[in-house]
Amino acid sequence: MTKTISVLGCGWLGLPLAKQLVKEGFQVKGSTTSPSKVYSLEEAQIQPYVFKVKETFEGEVKDFFEADLLVLNIPPGRRNPNVETDHPLQVELVVKEAIKGGIQQLVFISSSSVYGAANDIVTETTIPAPSTGSGRALVKAERWLQEQAIAVTILRMAGLFGPKRHPARFLAGKKDLKNAAAPINLVQLDDAVAAILSVIQQEKWGTLYNVCADEHPQRKDYYTQKAAALDLDPPTFLEEEVTTYKIVANQKIKAELGLTFKVLN
Description:
By secondary structure, the chain is α/β, with parallel strands linked by helices. Helices cover 32% and strands 20% of the residues. It has a single domain, classed as Rossmann fold (3-Layer(aba) Sandwich), CATH 3.40.50.720. The chain has eight helices and twelve strands. The N and C termini lie far apart (40 Å).
């Protein structure tokens, strides 16, 4: 019988993932918060659902959670002053509904921001020390998830980029940026989708993985070069002696899932 996968959050990452899952032969349900996106989901043979996850579900959830597997992809709102409380509660709401609907497996999209600025290489065994509210919200959600009666794998994504979302555009023209010498941690959209798909196809449950490219060029070098390549105003950086950083290691996911990562472009 064909496995049914629900993708909660068919946005910049979730939609390409859902489309790839359809190509791989899965039955796919996809949620969006925007009615205008229903047609694009239907066109991609994704069964559409329109709802938001707040304190409760806003919209028609219907049978969205009647599936074999859930990909939970709702990033914490960085501008929400109550994110440390709100986001874990949203995750709890979703997962309880998923378990009630019969879902037995869950991929949770987290972030390498949970590590904070460790000033070191961080692996999956590194104890999280987030420095932001959104990072602390993710750690809280991760820990709660790992205690539930559902098979969970957590993917801690580095900075995501890809079509129409190149990181150089976010920093173009900005002045006096800090941490010029800090190594960067990025992952391309195609690699992020491949990582999620590999977890599902290889049935790698009850674990967590960092998802990050092999390369870690310095911020100043990378963003200056890429701004020039995209014909953007280059950012400028302060010359500081003290640099805070982390290097997100990806050896575990490469060894266990056989993944390779594209060269940063």
